[in-house]
Amino acid sequence: MTNPSDTPKRASKIWGAIPSLGLLFTGLYLSITGKWSLIPWVPVGPGPFMDLVALTSTAECLRTSGWTLDSPSCDPYDRKFNYPSLWVYVFALFRLDAADTSWLGVAFLVLLCLVVLALGSGMRTSGARPADYLWLSIATVSPAVLFAVERGNVDILILALVLLATLAQIHRFSGTAGFLVGIATLLKLFPIGSSGLLLVGRGRGIRGWIGLFATLAVGTILLVPELRAIGGRTPSGDLVSYGMSVPIRWAYQWLDIQPHPLALRLLGLALFLIFLAVISIVALRWSPLRGQLATSANYMLHRPQAAGLFVASGGAWLVSYATDSFDYKMIFLLPVLAVLLPMAHESWLPRILSVAIVLEMWLSSLMPAPLQVVGDLVWLVTTPMLVILYLTLLWRLLQDRLVEFREGRRADYPSVTG
Known about the structure:
By secondary structure, the protein is an all-alpha fold. The protein has one domain. It contains 16 helices and no strands. The protein has helices at 6-33, 50-65, 86-93, 101-125, 130-140, 143-151, 155-170, 174-188, 207-233, 245-254, 261-285, 287-301, 304-321, 333-343, 348-362, 369-412. The longest helix is centred in the C-terminal third of the chain and has 44 residues, at 369-412.
């Protein structure tokens, strides 16, 4: 006989699976039929899974003709190889070549769906409501996320590594967490922002930091000689400057001035830093916002899973946002969104940030210019709030670890009383 109390749990599991199933069915349909043009704001390349094919074709060259980073391009679209060579050696180790690109692209889609399924499961333990899963579903089929799927972008694998590192840290495998963050950093550099994860949880000691720095020390010996070549080959856009390059470009057009792409990025950075400073001052002086930041940080401090996801995924995204970033990196905001949505029922700041993240995933630089401006203006105000919340949580975690360290010192050296 079915226990009536099991019905809400079963319904919650169904709701938790909806975001991943929506992404799976949408991605499979578009991948199998090739009808990416049905999503008009996803830029479709001349072939499927273009980012993935660069790795599979180069791995094939390594096994057949002894490829090096200085070799001519093996890419069928003649693009210069701009990944750390570690990727090629891993692909070659598993004997992957260009013929494997299609099924690997579908495997990346399934991996991303598993990540979203894990996020949905985590939301259930945080008391999420059906509306929260619908918001996450809207985000998972956004142009930014589908862009990552269409390209077969390896950031999907990096996101999975960051999520595994978070699980390892929560379950007290700090050395493993540090190792995974180190590997992710060697593969794509920007996951170094996830290292704040190692501050989450009491009693972890320094094993995580030893794992991280040992991995980076060994890997850096291989990576440093390649950085100059990778940097020179990586395409740099001018429409991803902290959510403000489109209005800045319009101003240039109104003044009839031809801007340099670097000028657009620098102006976007300057405007972002100005807004960050202004909102930081407001946060410090306006008690309602200051209270919201404290409440949100306290919520995550008492929930290691929420703190770990927010710091690890949010940190990686923030570092990527400060460099040459593209819209598919917004997949790193999916865990952040999964943390914020259950919090939004009690506090208005997580509610604003959740809506802003979903809007930006849709109103990104993939959209027509007028809609980009709307997304840029929303993002310009809310991104500093995300940064401040991230830094607030990071500071509180650091304080907790310092208190834990001092308590440990007192335990090791008890005071002597006469």
